[in-house]
Amino acid sequence: VQLQASGGGQVQAGGSLRLSCAASGTSSSYVIGWFRQAPGKEREFVSAIRWNGGLKKYADSVKGRFTISRENAGNAVYLQMNSLKPEDTAVYYCAAGGAWRAPSTQYEYDYWGQGTQVTVSS
What we know:
This protein is mainly β. It has strands spanning 2-6, 9-12, 17-24, 31-37, 44-50, 56-58, 66-70, 76-81, 90-97, 111-112, 116-121.
């Protein structure tokens, strides 16, 4: 399994970004999650989606602002981030796991991509 995250950048508060996670080697039952880590803080869950069935989960801090979706061909997952806040500044990682058990728990994920930096200025 290989994951490639992209789409990060610098925006002003209130702006939008769309992150992409290109995945290869996954199966239809896989779960793709997004996590983020800000400087000096622990990595935290952002959102997750299951390839088949489209189950989704969001952290409370991003509900109503972020939307996770998947490409129908099953090769990519997107994280649309709207109404960005300075506290959303972090390195964002996508990860893949084999089952929808506890998708907000990073230990459920076996594979991780490299991060993409998101910086939101006030």
